[in-house]
Amino acid sequence: MKQQSLFATAVCQVSRRRLLLGGLAFGSMGLLAPRGLTNTPKASDVTDFLILSEFLTGRKTLSVTLARRYYLGLQDQFPDLAVRIANLSREIHASGVQTMDDYLSHGPSPEARNTATTIVSAWYLGVIGQNPKKQMIAYSDALMFQAVAGALVVPSYGAGPLAWGNRPEPYMMLKGVSDEQ
Amino acid sequence: MRKISTSCSTRVAICLVACSALASLLPKAQAADVTLAEKGRYIATAADCLACHTAPGGKPFAGGYPIITPVGTIYSTNITPAPKSGIGDYTKTEFFDAVRRGIGHNGKRLYPAMPYTSYAAITNDDMEALYAFFRSEVAPVEQENRPDNIRFPFSIRSGMALWNWLYLDTRTFQPRPGETSQVARGRYLVDHLEHCGTCHTPRTLFMGPANGRALSGSVVGAWYAPNITTDKIAGIADWTDSDLRNYLTSGHAMNKGQAAGPMAEVVTNSTRFLTPDDVDAMIAYLREVSPIASKEKRSRTSYGSTEPTEDIARGQTNPDDRGWKIFSGSCASCHQAQGQGINVYPSLTHNSATGSTNARNLVATILTGVERQTGENAVFMPAFGPGALWVNRLSDQDIADVSNFILKAFGNPSVQIDARYVEKRRAELTP
Amino acid sequence: MSSETLHADVVIVGSGVCGALIGAQLAKAGKSVLILEAGPRVKRRDIVETYRDAPVKLSLANMKLQGAGSPFPSLPHAPSTYGDYLEQNGPVKYNTSYLRVVGGTTWHFGSALWRLLPSEFKLNSLYGRGRDWPIGYDDLEKYYDLAELELGVSGTDDQDESGAGGNPSPPRTAPYPMKQVPLTYMFKTLAEKLSAGGYHPVWEPHGRATRPYNQRPVCAGNNNCNPICPIGAKYDGSMHCDIAESRGATIIPNAVVYRLEDDDTGRIQALWFKRPDGSEHKVTAKVFVVAAHTIETPKLLLMSKTRHSPNGIANSSDMVGRNLMDTTGISVTMKTRDPMWPGQGPTELLVFNKREGDFRRNAAQYKIKVRNTTPVSQYAATLLEQGVLGTELDRKIQELSAHTLAWAVDFEVLPDPANRVTLSTKKFDALGLPVPSLYYNLDDYWHAGTELAMQDLNNFTQLLDADIIKKNMKFENRQHPSGTTIMGDNPKDSVVNRDCRAHDHPNLYIAGTSVMSASTCMNPTLTAAALSLRIAERIQGEV
């Protein structure tokens, strides 16, 4: 299947880039240029989007399949997506930061921040865009649920018969979540 | 509809109400050797008399349970000490002959649905105890036996004499030279009391056990009793002792398999009540059984997840894979979006039912659901077959589609089925 | 017009819990039963998947989204009440949401299954307010027992459900059929902290199985009771549709009943229903049961204007559609210092009741409940709208989810003939039938209740070390409608008698919460179910 081989290529490239560039890996981002309206992005576009998404969300193992679907969906709703991504990437690259938190404290431009929020919203909510053009991509894979995983289930996916009662402890341990007595 | 819904058969699901009522009859997991009858209770439990001799929702040991065989439906008999319809007027010799020789009252031959070829080796001491238990501890229930529905020529019971000559070994149990006492005890339990071979050993053309292929797996109605020999691929060599212990005592071995259908009844009524020593003895013996290979190339528990279909298909109005859609709506709420399971909900990957070389246990489980009693807890998966609530019910095509998806995504992808296959399994579940 | 006339001993309009229960009981008794349902028959897996695929997920915790996002179908012949189907005329919006599918609105109910207290049948004689029921608790007790068995209720034995912390009440002859679910960390913590302030936690009885029960699996904490229990651990009316059908009853989905016809003796002769294609079909029966929900039942009766009943069937009193009640409420959101983690286990369980006491002369009784719906998606969306990114996003999602408590209060509403369902003169559905038009307002008695409840909630902030961060005093509809075919002994001011039989028609019964003489502040389903089982018993003696 054509789709499958595309995924395989993308996966391959991701690991290669991770290997070459370590944590920060958008060497090719600046090369992204606006292209004609097309529904079949190049594998490298998806890969770049995936790497950018991993930086923006602070996650290391985002799904290539979902990256492709978010990319397509966002492209559909934002015709200038490629330009916006290129601008955002260039700005991150120029800032020299290593993490999203550093980038945020560095002070992104309003446009870059806007693009970042659009992409992060998609991954976190599993939904692209605003009403009435909202498009559903992921439910149980939406990243917002990872923040509370271990404590709360994704609604409709139960943890088993009467499987509750202990003090909830999310897997994701974050500094500063207030739990003071 | 009702007719079908009460047909949970091939020893499938004794309803839970019955199970809880029966629980009091069964011993605690300790062989308290107090009296002869108490010892007999333990023997009866280990021999799992209850499961077959109690109809769904019926009185304990009063019979009427349909046993579906390739030659027709056999109804188990009333073995309560009721004088008219039960075994109240059996002499001790008659009782011994029935259990160990398959000879009923007035010399009438029993069908080997009653596993007397396995029971033949029960020791005299154990038979005395069993007799004492059935005489004194079982409540008499007058309930007439239901006639069998056996096809010619198997309907001629006298033919059983010849059959017995071929297949019945009348010697009582003796430890073998060089066998440890633990392995000997295990062999006594596995081969005789628990009569594992009745289901797990394939049958010959004449329905006799194919002794050269002992415990190498066999069809049981709609179900499949898998290969439990020590073969590295086909058998249970990759199950640890703790997997086997968990399986026998709770019916659930993580990333290996779960007891459903007839095996759920075995766990519910029998193996979970065995003493820890007896469970260990069974395991020790199962480790000694000769490996018997079959055609499979990979162990049935070795299949992991292949494709993240949830990522591909969620939110699509017309997902390509109809099977995924059914899986997501009917299965994923418990087995989880990627089939990985959670807590007591088993994973569909690394699972005997999905990694097998046939889809029988997968399809039969979907059709009938699972009901199993484990300690204080009832394990329950709802049925999706004819007995299911209308809002849950799946068609043959639905079940074929969802099975094919599960086999491809989580199990043995070389097994694929069609609606006709499901239809046949449905028929096999109907007495 | 119809090709043939259908006939049954008993024809039931509506396949929700009440209609289905009556159908199941009568079918078991060997009667020929026909159940007509306006909406379609749905599969659980389709609703679950529609829910998961929806970009906007409806839940009761997110009231502002009421009006969109129900995963249940909206069809031209049976429009969803989540749209703009209901016409609002009064000063207070009565935006109730009921489901027009086989099995009815219990598909999405939270499944609270309370009995009323003996005192709640006597509001007028005890406190000089509202109406007394013509029957008392003792008349209904054995039907409550039976209803709890039929619906499979899990509950806590031996607690004072009035909330006063006294002896067990109401009196029961049998324990709950199933034991209560385990308590979550939040429930335990809240119960402990608020008990210290003299509040008495009450554990809600509900329809989630805690052991396998009539093919229902055990509740697995899917936290999705509304809009759909994905595994069917929670009771819904479709289960009794199955029982009715397995005993020989016929269920016809997509059959919108629009007219009942009576004769000069007052007996109902026939009813008429339309198919989605507009075709019209006639049904005759010995006994007719209308169990079509508190809004649709009066609509049907009012549409049925006949020569003998010019104001509509059963409406000689002009009470049909009047006395519309609810347990209209308010809500308060608190931020707590310590993490509480709402969202584990089922979506509701802990309540603080104020059901009895002399205050009821002046103020509505009430029930304070804490919502246990996981709020993650709501907060994540809000945070992203605010532009929160980076680690801060995960941190805030955790913090808001763990520390935010959503309290909701339900109040008793007195029967007021001015609050009513009528037929719209402007708006019609695809079959040409008028949509329900609602007038609703709340009185000082209700407002006095809200003041008492706010005092309690302010006390809660002290006991929980919490701050109120949001308050909504604006008449939240609680989907507990009642009163529109009110029960009474006097045919001049009530629609049905103490047996739920129409005063005007000897062979017409009305089942559902619409017959209730008082709303109380409690969820009404179990009372309607008990009354339905009583109706089934009456009918069994007649046909």
TrEMBL record, chain A:
Keywords on record: Membrane, Transmembrane, Transmembrane helix
Key word Membrane present: yes
Superkingdom to which the source organism belongs: Bacteria
Residue spans crossing the bilayer: 143-164
Protein name as it appears in the record: Sorbitol dehydrogenase
Organism whose genome encodes this protein: Gluconobacter kanchanaburiensis NBRC 103587
UniProtKB/TrEMBL annotation, chain B:
Residues that hold heme c 1 according to the record: 49, 52-53
Subcellular locations according to the entry: Cell membrane
Region annotation Disordered: where it falls in the sequence: 296-319
The Cytochrome c domain, residue ranges: 35-138, 181-290, 318-410
Cofactor note: Binds 3 heme c groups covalently per subunit.
One of the record's GO cellular component terms: plasma membrane
InterPro entries: Cyt_c-like_dom (IPR009056), Cyt_c-like_dom_sf (IPR036909), Cytochrome_c-type_DH (IPR051459), Membr-bd_ADH_cyt_c (IPR014353)
This protein's name: Cytochrome c
Organism whose genome encodes this protein: Gluconobacter kanchanaburiensis NBRC 103587
From TrEMBL, chain C:
Family: Belongs to the GMC oxidoreductase family.
Protein name in UniProt: Choline dehydrogenase
Gene3D superfamilies assigned: FAD/NAD(P)-binding domain
A GO molecular-function descriptor: oxidoreductase activity, acting on CH-OH group of donors
Domain annotation Glucose-methanol-choline oxidoreductase C-terminal: ranges: 465-531
Cross-referenced Pfam families: GMC_oxred_C, GMC_oxred_N, NAD_binding_8
SUPFAM superfamilies: FAD/NAD(P)-binding domain
UniProt domain Glucose-methanol-choline oxidoreductase N-terminal: residue ranges: 229-326
Annotated region (Disordered), positions in chain: 154-175
Tagged with keyword Isomerase: no
This protein's UniProt keywords: FAD, Flavoprotein, Oxidoreductase
Lineage top rank: taxon: Bacteria
